[in-house]
Amino acid sequence: MMERKIDIAFISAMHAPFIQDDIDVLREHFIVRDQIGHGFRACAKILWLVLRSDIVYCWFASVYASLAVRVAKWMGIKSIVVIGGVDVAKDDDIGYGMWRTPWRARLVRYALTQASHVLAVDPSLKEKAVSLAGYQGENIAYVPTGYDAEFWRPAGVKVPLVLFVAHIEDVVRARVKGVDIFLNVAAGMQETKFILVGVSAKVLSSFQIPKNVVVHEPVERKQLLPFYQHAKVYCQPSRHEGLPNSLCEAMLCGCIPVASDVGGNRTAVGDAGFLAQVGDPEEIAQAIRNALLADEAAAIRARARIVSLFPLEKRQRALVDLITKCLA
C-alpha cells in the first residue's frame, strides 16, 4: 500500500515507445504524473508537477530535465535522469547532439552532475557523459532498456531480405541512423531486396532511392512485428547509438543483425551477429552477404542474446528498486 503513495513527476520533451514503456512500468507500482512535450507551458507544468511529487524521473538530460532537477534539489527530493544518446553527443559534422550549443550544454551538464541518479541505457553513454560533463560520473549506473520476448518472437520462414527500421522525420537524424549508408549499401547490392521502414517522405526526398529498396512510412510499434518476422537480416548502420530498440526487437524475432560497431550496437550484437566499421558501406555490404548465408543457428543465437541480456523484467526490477530505495 505504501508504494501507491509514491508520486512520480515523469518528464520528457518527446514521446517514444521506450519512454512509454517506462511510464507503464512505473504506473504498475506508483502514481505517475507525466509531462511529455516542450515549450513554455511544459516548463510551467514541470514546476507544478515537481512541487507536488516525491521524486522526479526524466528521460534525457535535456533543458527540461535541468529545470526539474533544479526544482527537485530546492525541494530536497531525489531526481533520476535517463540518458539515451543525443544528450551525450556532440557531432558538428552532421549537426547532432545537445552539447553543440554552449547554453544548452551548460544546462545538460547541470542535469547530469546534479541529478541524484543517472541511468545510462548503454555503458558507452556513461563514458561520453563523464567526458563531456567533466566529472567522475559517480551518480551514473548502467540500466539497459528491456524487451518483451513473448511479443517479439520469430514466426514462419525467413525471406532473404535486409530490413532497417528507424522513426525519422529530419535529415540530421537520418544521418545519425545511417539512412544514407543503408541506401548506399543497397545500391551496390542490386540482387538483394532491402526494406526501409519509418522514414518520412519529406526526408526521403533528400536521398536517391535504389530500385531494390522498398520504402514504408512510419507505422505503429506493434505493426513492426511482421516486418521483423519476415526478414532474415536486420541492418543498423548508425553513426551514433544508445541501445537501439529496433535492433533488439529484430534480434528477438530471429533476424541476424548487421550493425556499425558503435555504442549500443556493439552491446546488443556482441558475438551473435556481424559488426562493421562505422560509415563503411563496403564492409557493411560484406557483413550482410555473410549474414544472408548464415544458417538458422545464427538466428537462434541472436534471439537468445537479447532474451538473456535485456529482459523487460530486469529493467522493471531495477527501476522499482531504485525508486523505493530513494524514498526509504
Features:
328 residues, alpha/beta, six-stranded parallel sheet, 44% helix
Summarize the structure.
Helix content is 44%, strand content 20%. It has 14 helices and twelve strands.
Walk me through this protein's architecture.
The protein is an alpha/beta fold. The chain is 44% helix and 20% strand. The protein is built from 14 helices and 12 strands. The protein has helices at residues 17-27, 40-51, 63-75, 102-114, 123-133, 171-177, 179-187, 201-204, 225-230, 245-252, 263-269, 281-293, 296-309, 312-326, and strands at residues 7-12, 31-36, 55-59, 78-83, 117-120, 140-142, 159-168, 193-199, 213-216, 231-236, 256-260, 274-276. The strands form 2 sheets. Strands 2-1-3-4-5-6 form a 6-stranded parallel beta sheet, with helices on both faces. The protein has a 6-stranded parallel beta sheet with strand order 9-8-7-10-11-12, sandwiched between helices. α8 (201-204) links the parallel β8 and β9 (213-216). α3 (63-75) packs across α4 (102-114), α7 (179-187) crosses α12 and α10 (245-252) crosses α13 (296-309). The chain is globular, with a radius of gyration of 20 Å. The mean pLDDT is 95.
